[in-house]
Structure formats: C-alpha cells, structure tokens
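Might you be able to check the backbone structure tokens below? Thank you kindly.
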Amino acid sequence: MRIYIATTALLLGLLGTNASASQLSPTPGQDSAETRMSEYAASRPPIGYVQFCNDNPRECRSGSPMPQRLVLTPARLKQLNEVNDLVNEAIAPITDEDLYGVAEKWTYPLDRGDCEDYVLLKRRLLAERGWPLSSLLITVVRDTKGDGHAVLTVTTSAGDLVLDNQVPEIHFWRDTPYDFLKRQSKTDPNAWVSLRYDDSQSQYSVGGTPNR
C-alpha cells in the first residue's frame, strides 16, 4: 500500500521528530481555520442520504453523544491510507445516471460507484476498524469544475483530514481545492451542519463527472 503524508507538519509531528500530536492541533474546545472546519447553522441532509437511510435504517443510527477526535498516531494514519487506497483502487468511477438510470442514488458499491458510494464504503470500513462514527463525517463540497462532490472528513487531533476518490492523497481540508458546503454533525449522523456562514439551508446534488 502507498503511504501518503498530507503535509510536512504531519510528517514531522507523527513520524519521528520532537513535535507531538498536541502541538499540531489547536487548543481543546476551540476550532481553528488552520486545522478544523468551522460549522454554522443546521442544514438539510442531501436527498440521496435521506433515501439511503430509509433503505438502510441501521446504518444511520445515532452514535455516541460525545464526539471523539482521535489522536492521529502513525498506526492510525497508516490505517486511513490503507482504507483510502483499497476503496479507490477497487471501485471504478461511474455516475448514478449511467449505473442506475437516476440522478442520485447513495449505496454501498460492489465494483463501480459515484463519489458518495466511495465515501460510504470508506466510512463503513473505518468504523469496522474501530474509528468512531462521530469522527467519520460525510461531507458535501463543490469541486474544481463547480460540480457537487462528496468526500469523507476524518476529524483527528491534528485537524480535519479529507479522504477523496478524485485524488489518491489524503490532505488536510485546507489543502484541498474544494468549496466546503455541509457535512454530518459530529453528534448525530442524521443532522447536518453548514460549512458556509451564508448558505446553511441549500440543497446540493453530489453527483458529477466521475474521475479519480
């Protein structure tokens, strides 16, 4: 498996220098634009997510009311990269329209899928490896083409990391080219929060042109 490091700071902090994970993260209880996304008002969940939960109610149960921001150890970073690589390499990108004949359908993929299908599978595999669902947040963005796109945000002590199917590397959210729109709440997977101060209640389709 390829092991990608999001930034030089992460490499120095986790793989052998005097910097600690706590030195890479802001003061506990405070969000920082440098490492953590700011959350605003409640937002509507994507319609595809609502339909997914209707079909898979056990997959959308509320988890722990206490969000967990795990310390990003080398072992956990390796695990993130392994799952990210595994799913990106196993699933071929295809739009929901081409695969199912509908504009948007969220589901676990077999060998093909749209961006949200990659996210759902990565989320499930990481949860099976012990990651709390409160740290695995489905996130809606606009990509560089202006299309709606879904990524998985993993909240850690070092900051918010983004697992994506359009690029192989894992990056801190601030190091991606995306416009972040909304994501799941850390306290309730069925509640969504806006990542934009002035755009909390907009609906977004997350299907776009498939690519890696």
